[in-house]
């Protein structure tokens, strides 16, 4: 049973060679694709492409609950989410890697929880990312010589449209990077006691800076970044401690009323 799951985003489709693919049915419907099982550097991995195998699911229509449930059902305890993001700050440059440490939710109409009653839960989201996996991927990305930001606040917008210049200026006053998929993916993983780390690859300066961003540019730059992501995973995944001492699952002890 794979204990590590990877959710790949825009332009990240070939990070390993799957040995099998499993169709998982969940109480929330179908995940974005069958879950692919394979290995990265000797470690068993479950992989899901967030936008489907042919990128036909837009960010606001991703079935985040089914994706996280499916990975959990297969035994996954730790989730690595790969995302393409725009930069809201000069010093966060296209091509840089960010190991996100906070998020701000600007989405509007998604399924945010597994707990819609009668069981009521309120999960702490103060420090949402797994400290053990953050450490591994910060060290790995830096060790590979990539320009790496140890911290960064990701503002998640609803999409599928990009921001207006005014929105971008506002977001820039409190966040460092912008994307459309981190929420509710991380929230749902946490609700099941799973660890989550976000490896964000910057593809563009959002519109506050210069010319309007476009989707083709994001996918083109992400293709260029794919090798970086592959290397970070190849080196980083085997360094993830097998036993979890991070406390990510402890939120379950205090969430229920
Ligand atoms: C293809 S442009 C916008 C698209 O790219 C990012 O995808 P992901 O987070 O899955 O890497 C962004 O969030 C949007 O979904
Ligand atoms: N500028 C941007 N805004 C929102 N999502 C993105 N994904 C990649 N670049 C983005």
TrEMBL record:
It is an enzyme of class 2 (transferase). Phosphate binds at residues 10, 50-51, 83-84, 181. It holds the Pfam family PNP_UDP_1. GO terms for cellular component: cytosol. GO terms for biological process: L-methionine salvage from methylthioadenosine; purine ribonucleoside salvage. The keyword Aminoacyl-tRNA synthetase does not apply. InterPro entries: MTAP, Nucleoside_phosphorylase_d, Nucleoside_phosphorylase_sf, Purine_phosphorylase-2_CS. Keywords: Glycosyltransferase, Purine salvage, Transferase. Residues 3-234 form the Nucleoside phosphorylase domain. GO terms for molecular function: S-methyl-5-thioadenosine phosphorylase activity. It catalyses: S-methyl-5'-thioadenosine + phosphate = 5-(methylsulfanyl)-alpha-D-ribose 1-phosphate + adenine. Its EC number is 2.4.2.28. Gene3D superfamilies: Nucleoside phosphorylase domain. Pathway: Amino-acid biosynthesis; L-methionine biosynthesis via salvage pathway; S-methyl-5-thio-alpha-D-ribose 1-phosphate from S-methyl-5'-thioadenosine (phosphorylase route): step 1/1. Substrate binds at residues 180, 204-206. The record marks 163, 215 as: Important for substrate specificity. Homohexamer. Dimer of a homotrimer. Catalyzes the reversible phosphorylation of S-methyl-5'-thioadenosine (MTA) to adenine and 5-methylthioribose-1-phosphate. Involved in the breakdown of MTA, a major by-product of polyamine biosynthesis. Responsible for the first step in the methionine salvage pathway after MTA has been generated from S-adenosylmethionine. Has broad substrate specificity with 6-aminopurine nucleosides as preferred substrates. Belongs to the PNP/MTAP phosphorylase family. MTAP subfamily. This is S-methyl-5'-thioadenosine phosphorylase. It comes from Palaeococcus pacificus DY20341. The gene is mtnP.
């Amino acid at each position: 049973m794979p204990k590590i799951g990877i959710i790949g985003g825009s332009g990240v489709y070939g990070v390993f060679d799957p040995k099998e693919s499993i169709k998982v049915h969940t109480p929330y419907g179908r995940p974005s694709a069958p879950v692919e099982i394979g290995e990265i550097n000797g470690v068993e991995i479950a992989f899901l492409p967030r936008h489907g195998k042919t990128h036909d699911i837009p960010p606001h229509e991703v079935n985040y609950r089914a994706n996280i449930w499916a990975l959990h059902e297969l035994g996954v305890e730790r989730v690595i989410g790969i995302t393409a993001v725009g930069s809201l700050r000069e010093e966060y440059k296209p091509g840089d890697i960010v190991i996100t440490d906070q998020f701000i939710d600007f989405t509007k109409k998604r399924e945010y929880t597994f707990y819609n009653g009668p069981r009521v839960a309120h999960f702490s989201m103060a420090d949402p990312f797994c400290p053990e996996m953050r450490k591994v991927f910060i060290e790995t990305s830096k060790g590979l010589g990539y320009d790496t930001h140890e911290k960064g606040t990701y503002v998640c917008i609803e999409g599928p449209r990009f921001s207006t210049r005014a929105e971008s200026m506002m977001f820039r006053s409190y966040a460092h990077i912008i994307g459309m998929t981190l929420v509710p993916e991380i929230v749902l993983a946490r609700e099941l006691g799973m660890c989550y780390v976000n490896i964000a690859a910057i593809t563009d300066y959002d519109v506050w800076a210069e010319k309007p961003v476009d989707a083709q540019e994001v996918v083109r730059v992400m293709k260029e970044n794919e090798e970086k992501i592959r290397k970070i995973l190849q080196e980083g995944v085997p360094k993830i401690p097998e036993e979890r001492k991070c406390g990510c699952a402890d939120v379950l002890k205090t969430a229920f009323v």
